[in-house]
Design goal:
With 340 residues, the chain is mostly helical. Helices cover 64% and strands 1% of the residues. Mean pLDDT is 90; it is low at 321-337.
Length: 340
């Protein structure tokens, strides 16, 4: 049975499906509030006790919550933040997507193709997993590019150029195109900057919002991409073409917020709110544990993904990797949120 033919009732009973499908608005709001509380708490920590250690800690926490906002936007794209679509879209757009320069509806159109064709040749996210396994040296280069902001800069540059439109367009047309692509995102970020300035910490916007967005958030987005679909055992088996990765408290704090590690469960039932995914995991584990692609932690996944011998890291292969990376950057350059 292929990945395109599996049904929810092949895995859960009708009563179980009814229970895990329930979308509770206050739970969605609570997760969003949790993300912003940690962000503001990290900013307050640095403002109250400024030193290199608190700054690095804050960058790690804020970067992980920025990924968390992307995850909650992704829940919104699946209609899971609230049973009411207007509420769902408002929460997803204004409190999750716009602050991180994303957009829910554009992401939804692209992302549902990934669910329909997971790990098949026409999966738009295949470029994120196809190059693996790679060498440890190759991953180290990627990690350095991510951590130093090079990856984030290139992505945001591509997003900005796409929003500005071609140079030959009239100014009015370019302005309208920019507003349609990035207008609300810029407004929300201007409000965020103004609010921080009003609190006397204007410096927090560049140092504790943009820096994490361009650095640590890029690092863990790549790790999450790898964990979800790279080096999976069987591209046509829905229990083995997507991975769930167990995460301890530290991993959930800095790498995998808001149940994003339960990716196999999400793919089997993509209309399930993220807070119900652990329950789905427990149900599936009772009958399908032997078939499910599960790894004990993110380090184990990275070992699998970097298992290619370093002597294979030759110039010709590096050029091929660069071509794949460019191809990936071109897929939805103004909206790529990293798969899920």
């Amino acid at each position: 049975m292929t990945a395109l033919r599996m049904r929810a009732r092949d895995f859960l009973s009708e009563d179980e499906l009814v229970a895990v499908r329930e979308r509770v608005t206050w739970k969605g709001v609570a997760l969003i509030a949790h993300a912003w509380a940690l962000i503001l708490g990290a900013i307050a920590l640095v403002a109250w006790w400024p030193n290199p250690l608190t700054y690095l800690l804050a960058v790690g926490i804020i970067g992980s919550r920025q990924l968390g906002l992307a995850i909650l936007m992704h829940d919104g794209a699946h209609g899971c933040l609230s049973a009411d679509e207007n509420t769902n879209l408002t929460l997803s757009q204004w409190f999750c997507a716009y602050p991180i320069f994303a957009e829910t509806r554009a992401y939804r159109r692209y992302h549902l193709q990934h669910h329909a064709r997971t790990q098949q040749e026409d999966d738009p996210d295949l470029v994120l997993s196809a190059p693996f396994p790679i060498t440890q040296l190759s991953y180290r280069r990627k990690f350095i590019r991510d951590l130093t902001g090079q990856t984030g800069y290139q992505q945001r540059k591509a997003q900005l150029l796409n929003a500005l439109g071609p140079n030959e367009w009239p100014l009015a047309q370019r302005a309208a195109h920019f507003w349609a692509k990035l207008g609300p995102q810029c407004v929300v970020n201007a409000i965020l900057f103004a609010a921080l300035a009003a609190l006397g910490v204007w410096w927090a916007y560049p140092l504790l919002w943009l820096v994490p967005l361009l650095t640590w958030q890029m690092v863990i987005t790549r790790i999450r991409n790898i964990a979800e679909h790279a080096v999976v055992p069987d591209s046509s088996d829905p229990l083995r073409n997507t991975r769930t990765t167990h995460a301890n408290f530290i991993e959930r704090l800095f790498i995998a917020p808001y149940y994003v590690n339960y990716h196999l469960e999400h793919h089997l039932l993509f209309y399930i709110p993220c807070y119900n995914l652990p329950r789905v995991h427990r149900i599936l584990s009772r009958t399908h544990a032997g078939r499910m692609e599960i790894q004990p932690n993110y380090l184990a996944v990275l070992r699998l993904a970097t298992a290619k011998p370093n002597q294979d890291d030759r110039p010709g292969q590096l050029a091929s990797s660069a071509r794949r990376a460019r191809a990936g950057a071109e897929v939805g350059a103004d909206q790529k949120a990293g798969g899920f």
